[in-house]
Amino acid sequence: MAGRGGKQALQHLHRLRVSSSVGDGAVRASHARYSVSTATGVPLAETTEAETVESTSAGRKKLLVLGGSGYVGTHVCKEALSKGISVASLSRSGRPGVAEPWSQDVEWIKGDLFHPSNWRNELSDVSAVISCVGGFGSNQQMQKINGVANVQAIRAAADAGVERFVFVSAHDFGLPSFVMRGYYAGKRTAEDELLQKFPYSGVILRPGFIHGIRQVGTYKLPLNIIGSPLELVFKNLKAASQVPVVGKLLVPPVKVVTVAKVAVKSAMDNSVPPGVMDVWGIMRLGGDL
């Protein structure tokens, strides 16, 4: 019993050291020294030393939205602006084809994620990044857009000392492996990279069908006509979503404004824990449950 207690105490000390090193951007490392009783195996005394350094992103307040001119990205930009956050957007098209007043308050940057050397300097005053980058096409194209492009962005942000990174990924509906293989493979590749580069401040959102008003050229597609009633039905079927095989298909659609709200909160609020947030977690944090 004494040996077991000693092991638990040592594990507790280890957790204290880890939390000290990652819980505050100004703390880089801590070292604990302790002696152990040979009779009980329990630490008798400990002293902790923390080395404090300046955070590489101290004083930064700007949010960079990757793919900010797209469907989810524009809602993320609007949500961040409503919170008084300085917003920049990076995309291949730069400024979107919208003339809404809010767009005048965004810094629109034209850039290609596949060539980070051309836009890396834009990260110098950025505290958090939200990636809404994704797309469809052939398996090779989807792997490149959803995977490689986001991996490049994650690495560039980590190298620049950005504090937090949020990736809008996708729920796994459990479809056969040959269905949109490149899409899901790309998303998971980016997720793995994020968990490696931002283990304590990276958040992965996995919404299913995202509904709302989607602007396509001069047309507006009311995706909420389908999404809203399905959301009302499926959000009360959480138990059914745990059923093997078919359960993954029974997750509720999520409002695009909810995804945007949760993405911004996850990027700017250190109390949001790192890791994967599923559909239910998104709806709960967004106030839809």
UniProtKB/TrEMBL annotation:
Q: Name one GO molecular function term.
A: protein-containing complex binding
Which GO cellular component terms, listed alphabetically, does the Swiss-Prot or TrEMBL entry include?
mitochondrion
Q: Which residues form the NAD(P)-binding domain?
A: 67-210
Any Gene Ontology biological process: ubiquinone biosynthetic process
Gene3D superfamilies assigned = NAD(P)-binding Rossmann-like Domain
> InterPro entries given for it?
ComplexI_NDUFA9_subunit, NAD(P)-bd_dom, NAD(P)-bd_dom_sf
Q: Which domain of life is it from?
A: Eukaryota
State the protein's name: NAD(P)-binding domain-containing protein
- Which species expresses this protein natively? Physcomitrium patens
Which taxonomic lineage does the organism of this UniProt entry have? Eukaryota, Viridiplantae, Streptophyta, Embryophyta, Bryophyta
